[in-house]
Amino acid sequence: IADYIDGKWTNLEIKPIQNLSLHPSNLALHYGQSVFEGMKASVTKEGVPCLFRPEMHAKRINKSAARMCMPAFPEDLFVEAVTKLVGIEKNWIPPYDGSALYIRPFMFATDEFLGVRPSEKYKFIIMTLPVGPYYTKPVSLKAETEFVRAAIGGVGEAKAAGNYAASLYPAKLAQEQGFDQIMWLDAKEFKYIQEVGTMNIFFVIDGVIVTPQTDGAILKGITRDSFITIFKDAGYKVEERLIGIDEVFAAHADGKLQEVFGAGTAAVVSKVERIHHDGKEIKLDVSDYKIANLAYDTLTGLRNGTVEDKFGWVIPV
Ligand code: PMP
């Protein structure tokens, strides 16, 4: 936990989790200056806890913070704090079974003021939570044609609390209609695919791996970035470009849509078995998802030390 006061970070401490005391006019509660990260520490086969690309999370929270008019938290301090916290987390003796320690760094405004302006004081907190193995079942997606998550020029690229609040209502409706998650489309034409719930998305069309380009309206996932590198390294053609929902349905009709899967820290890979758009639906056979399996096996292998870390992504604690 740390406080930002008078233009600098101070009161750095590690302490047991406890309640916070906030004034009712806390700026974050009213105007949403709040950003966060989600990362996981896993354990290798030899029992060594490891972080995965922690500097990327440090950079991303600062990018989110800058968009929300919040100060940067020094990147080296971020990595040091996460490393220390994981190291002293005595309750966490995870077996080598896919269990992990979820790590939630977050920053929020602490000024007590009711007018709309950036706060001058902030808190930065990192908390951890042991999580069991994440068994993913194939998911169904509803391409959303009424609500939008993010527009170009908005805050979609920031991991800002408000983005998640905006998604709650459409996600609830989609779940009531029998879908697991929403596939977000662009805010202008409801045509181009952005991302899925808390994941980025990949398509395999006629042997080519396609993922939506980041144009300021989607979160630049660290899993997404890692997969692009892994796929290119394995010799696949990867395209980051605009991809329309119509293109996906047309590829399916032509028998060229081979795989659709989500990518994110929590599930690593979520295979997609059904996509609904505007009254039409496609079904996919997930039993032969070679690329999704390669992505999952490589990333989990890197994390548990059974795949050589040639990219230097895995940092022992
Ligand atoms: N998009 C959104 C909206 C998310 O919340 C997440 C999870 N952080 C992702 C994509 C995937 O990002 P990452 O791979 O960094 O977990």
Automatic annotation (TrEMBL):
Reaction(s) this enzyme catalyzes, per UniProt: L-leucine + 2-oxoglutarate = 4-methyl-2-oxopentanoate + L-glutamate; L-isoleucine + 2-oxoglutarate = (S)-3-methyl-2-oxopentanoate + L-glutamate; L-valine + 2-oxoglutarate = 3-methyl-2-oxobutanoate + L-glutamate
Q: In which pathway does it act?
A: Amino-acid biosynthesis; L-valine biosynthesis; L-valine from pyruvate: step 4/4; Amino-acid biosynthesis; L-leucine biosynthesis; L-leucine from 3-methyl-2-oxobutanoate: step 4/4; Amino-acid biosynthesis; L-isoleucine biosynthesis; L-isoleucine from 2-oxobutanoate: step 4/4
Whether Glycoprotein counts among this entry's keywords is no
Check the record and name the Gene3D superfamilies matching this protein. Answer: 3.30.470.10, D-amino Acid Aminotransferase, subunit A, domain 2
**Which Pfam families does the record cross-reference, listed alphabetically?**
Aminotran_4 (PF01063)
Residues annotated as carrying N6-(pyridoxal phosphate)lysine in the record are: K159
Q: Which CDD domains match?
A: BCAT_beta_family
Enzyme Commission numbers on file:
2.6.1.42
One GO BP on record is: amino acid biosynthetic process
PROSITE patterns the UniProt entry points to:
AA_TRANSFER_CLASS_4 (PS00770)
User: What is an example of a GO molecular function annotated in this UniProt entry?
Assistant: branched-chain-amino-acid transaminase activity
Instruction: Return the broad EC class.
Output: transferase
- State the InterPro entries in the record: Aminotrans_IV, Aminotrans_IV_CS, Aminotransferase-like, B_amino_transII, BCAT-like_C, BCAT-like_N, BCAT_family
The prosthetic group or cofactor this protein requires is: pyridoxal 5'-phosphate
Task: Write the record's keywords in alphabetical order, separated by commas.
Answer: Amino-acid biosynthesis, Aminotransferase, Branched-chain amino acid biosynthesis, Pyridoxal phosphate, Transferase
Tell me its family.
Belongs to the class-IV pyridoxal-phosphate-dependent aminotransferase family.
What function does this protein fulfil? Acts on leucine, isoleucine and valine.
Entry's NCBIfam families?
ilvE_II, PRK13357.1
What is the protein's given name?
Answer: Branched-chain-amino-acid aminotransferase
* Lineage, opening ranks: Bacteria, Pseudomonadati, Bacteroidota, Saprospiria, Saprospirales
